[in-house]
Amino acid sequence: MTDQPDDKNSFYITTPIYYVSGQPHIGSSYTNIASDVLARYHRFRGESVVFATGTDEHGQKVARGAAEAGKSPQDFADALVGDYKRAWDRLHVKYTRFIRTTEQQHVHVVQDIFAQLLSQDDIYLSEYTGWYCVPCETYLLEADLLDGSCPECGRPVEQVSERAYFFRTSNYADDLIRHIEDNEQFIAPESRRNEVLAFIRNGLQDACISRARTDWDIPVPDDDTQSIYVWLDALANYLTVAGFATDDEQFAAVWPPDVQLMGKDILIRFHGTLWPAVLMALDLPLPRCLFAHGWWNDGTGQKMSKSKGNVIDPFEVIDRLVEYSGVRTKFAVDTLRYYLLREVPFGADGSFSTAGLLQRFNADLANDLGNLLNRTLPLVERYLGGRVPAPGPGAGGLAEDITQTVEEVRTCLDEVNFRDALMAIWELIARCNKFIDQREPWTLHKQGKRVELDAVLYDMLDAIRVIAILIDPFMPEVAEEIWQQLGLSDAALQRTWDDLRPQRLQPAIAIHRGAPIFPRMDLDRALAKLANIETPPQDDDSPEDAQQVTGDEESGDEPGTISFADFQGLDLRTGRILEATRIPGTDKLLVLQVDIGEEQPRQVVAGLAARFNPRQLLGRTVVLVANLEPATIHGTESNGMILAAGEKEPLALITTDDDVEPGEKVR
Ligand code: ME8
């Protein structure tokens, strides 16, 4: 085996290629999101990144799936490939190469490899007698079976007895053990490394790598009785992507893979043994790190898997979050990315829970990160005319925290430790929230201490800038939104890892505060909805639809006449809308602050959100029933009612045809 080259300036990362036997789900999304985070991180560090994912299209599992669907394997595969590509795009997974094992280039690479290994006697022809698990596409010996079934998935196995080619894996057992022992990073986490070592020490069998000729798999060259085993075909995808046997220059620049991510199900027999043994036989450097992450269970302790039919669709989870919180879809996607990598250490198993995701949304995103923005940016608008101040002599109060966090995040990501990286970032967020509480910019403003005020708000903005860069690999759309709100997109500044030093924020940039990125949701209500339980009606909590603008839609009665005195009793006044925000977890409700000429604006809950964007309402003059009995609607106090035309839905606001001051009587 040749030595590992250290000098390539590329970063090559791979995901498994997925069987086109079912839709992408939380499990496959996990591997691809994790890979995407590493790819984005290495791009930030200035490396040229090759990030490959794709589809594994040969094998009995796919052929049978196609037959069951009444399609040809090619049509069946083509349809699913589109689903995989769309899913990765929607999950912000920015791969650079999508490989399909049915590509001609790949077919040639696989046949080349087979021919080379055969010519050098690493492959020989013999007889296979044993068992085969179609869902796992795995050859098994009698001794491997668990209660007569597949030890991996527990399903029935099929008996096979046929002529087949074998690869001499056993010849490489000693070299493999040595390589694993000498290279601590080669297989991670450590527990998996030990499992692979134990598996090899237990006696590595030669691997059956062909089967009786099928119409669908790659034919063995010069032997029309045999087809190549789907796993040899699949593993070779990593070589095809790098340009093996087709583009020597590219291959030299890219090989070997820096990180190969996969679930623990496909480490021991395939990526941890067969794969490096084949590479050794081809005299190629081995990947630098094979990282096997844990499984997501379906919430009942069962591994989520396409063939078991218990998979969770990531887009259903995202839709739920959007529905319950009102968050924009692209930020909901980033929330799922955050949840998957924050919830369990990479390497351990996890139990997927939408409720857990909703809780993290409220606690970590709406509260911690959201608060940081929602507290800082308005102060910059209010006290500093919306521009980044000059740091001044007192600035740098968060510099040490920033430097330390950046170091921690770098170390964690180099070690493929997503959870600790996120925890380090969230510690910085907590530190910033504490900093603003301690320094009290509102007091500094009142006391006219402008230099100190500038320093505190500069430090806060600068820390938010660093946080945006640090979270970017995990939550790229959220990072972009924060960047925009800081005014840095308008200033044509890119986020780069070089800008992670404190106090790099340029003064005088105009910030652009936008709507909150993470609207806080009514968690109890969301969890109740999630559990499909009707929320018990509460005395003070009118249902959303029966809110005051549209009146009681259920009665159906025409209103009778009222006396002039009754009409006189109505306190109708003009009001100017000062603020309008959505009530999280509802589709229709807005909470408005309305100036009606009183000392304090009136807070009114109105069912206008389906018709009006909150921003459209700002500054509008409306008519308000000012003496309506106060009510609590969706947990929010409401003092009055805004008049709008439209029986079931608000169609248009009742306003005045000329400018009048807020608080004018309406008669
Ligand atoms: O094995 N939890 O394809 P596959 C976490 N084609 N990750 C999961 C998961 C779960 N519940 N379920 C699936 C194959 N995964 C082969 C790979 S590579 C040369 C050939 C992820 O469609 C995880 O990465 O069965 C796992 O290894 C992979 O999907 C298996 O995907």
Please tag this protein with its features:
single chain, alpha/beta, Rossmann fold, Isoleucyl-tRNA Synthetase, Domain 1, 3 domains, 6-stranded parallel beta sheet, 21 helices, binds ligand ME8
Structure explained in plain terms:
This protein is an alpha/beta fold and 667 residues long. The chain has 3 domains: 10-297, HUPs (Rossmann fold), CATH 3.40.50.620; 323-328 and 350-500, Isoleucyl-tRNA Synthetase, Domain 1, CATH 1.10.730; 543-554 and 561-653, Nucleic acid-binding proteins (OB fold (Dihydrolipoamide Acetyltransferase, E2P), Beta Barrel). Helices cover 40% and strands 16% of the residues. The protein contains 21 helices and 23 strands. Strand 15 and strand 16 form a beta hairpin. It starts with 9 loop residues before the first strand and ends in a 14-residue tail after the last strand. The model is unreliable at 533-557 (pLDDT under 50). The structure holds ligand ME8.
Describe the structure in brief.
The protein is of the alpha/beta class and 667 residues long. The protein has 3 domains: 10-297, Rossmann fold (3-Layer(aba) Sandwich), CATH 3.40.50; 323-328 and 350-500, Isoleucyl-tRNA Synthetase, Domain 1, CATH 1.10.730.10; 543-554 and 561-653, Nucleic acid-binding proteins (OB fold (Dihydrolipoamide Acetyltransferase, E2P)), CATH 2.40.50.140.
What do we call the CATH homologous superfamily of the largest domain?
Answer: HUPs
Q: Give unreliable regions as ranges.
A: 533-557
Structural class given helices, strands, pairing?
alpha/beta
Q: What is the terminal separation in angstroms?
A: 92 Å
> What is the rounded Rg?
31 Å
How helix-rich are the residues, as a percent range?
A: 40-55%
Q: What's the average pLDDT?
A: 91
What's the architecture of the largest domain, going by CATH? Answer: 3-Layer(aba) Sandwich
Top-tier CATH class of the largest domain: Alpha Beta
Count of DSSP H/I helices: 21
Percent of residues in β-strands: 15-25%
Largest sheet: 6 strands, parallel
What bound compounds does this protein have? ligand ME8
The CATH topology of the largest domain comes to Rossmann fold
**CA-based shape:** elongated
